[in-house]
Structure formats: C-alpha cells, structure tokens
Amino acid sequence: MSKSDLLLELYSNLSTTGALTFSSKALVNKMLSYTDIANAKLVVELGGGDGSITQGIMDRLSPDAELMVFEINRSFCDAMEKQFPMPNVQIICDSAENLELYLKGRKVDYVLSSLPFSLISKDATDQILYYTKNSLNEKGKFIQICYSYLLKKLFGKYFSKIETKFTMRNLPPAFVMICH
C-alpha cells in the first residue's frame, strides 16, 4: 500500500485513528528514548497504523525478542504484514481490549501506544488500560503518544508514576506520557 493510500485510509477512518497525520520520526524517537528496547524480550504496540512506531521498534529490537502489534484497521494490518514479515513480529488485527487473550499470561517489557483514548468508549478504555497495567513486568512501562495533557488524569487511575514530555517536532505537537 502506498503512502498516499495509507493517508487516504487514515482520513477515511479519523474516528478510529484519531490522528491527522502519522507519527513523525522525531516523535517516534522521543517516545522510544524512554525505553531500552534492545534488551526487551516482549514489546506490545497498540495502534500500529502505518508502521511508523513499529519501524522504530524494529530498528532497536533484538532478533530474539518478540513484538506484538495491535491494529483494528484491516488495510493497515495488511500493509504492516508486508512491511514486517519477520518471524518475531506478530501483526494482530484485533482490538487492544483483547490484549490478555494474546499474551496468555506472559509479561511485557513495554507497551507503546498511539491509541486515540479521547475517541474510545470509557468501557473499552478502562479494559485496555487495566489489561495493559496488569500485563507489564515489574520494571515495565506503558508509553503513550497523545495530543491532550488531560489524559494524564485518566492514566493516573492505573499508574502511580507518570512522566510527561512534550515535542513540537510533530504535526500536531504531541505529549509522550511514560507510565510506571
């Protein structure tokens, strides 16, 4: 799928993508700077989109580590399956609400997300954040890209420590929230 086709898909599904453009390389690098992906064993990405964050993860991920990418848009999933055919990458065309079904009790080093929580129902949001919190290992982190500082209060219901960073190097400028 070409970049223009991906953009068309993005704009056609604003209610589920929640973004005007894909994450910039600067934003992806900022998000990943709060991780140690090279030493991770299991990483989960919520909202794979065009694979911008996925590519950043794969550039850092050890070949013996595993990446699970959740995305509900079939077109994005198909494109990512072609872009990331590696055996240690699993593209899951399903809601992040079903995270626990795929983890089967395994613990995660990092959950990286660009999900549009402002557009997701309260019940689905609560389920995603509950399972995300419970899936992390004891040193694990949930790292969220978002466009509203108000989401910090939502994440505070599940995580006791939240660091907030900001970058202007994205359109629109974005927050990166690092939750422990």
UniProtKB/TrEMBL annotation:
Methyltransferase domain mapped to chain residues: 43-140
Listed Gene3D superfamilies: Vaccinia Virus protein VP39
Database matches in InterPro entries: Methyltransf_25, SAM-dependent_MTases_sf
Transmembrane segments: none
Alphabetically ordered keywords of this record: Methyltransferase, Transferase
GO MF term set: methyltransferase activity
The keyword Ribonucleoprotein is annotated on this UniProt entry: no
Pfam families per the UniProt record, alphabetical: Methyltransf_25
Gene Ontology biological process terms, A to Z: methylation
Identification of the protein by name: Phospholipid N-methyltransferase
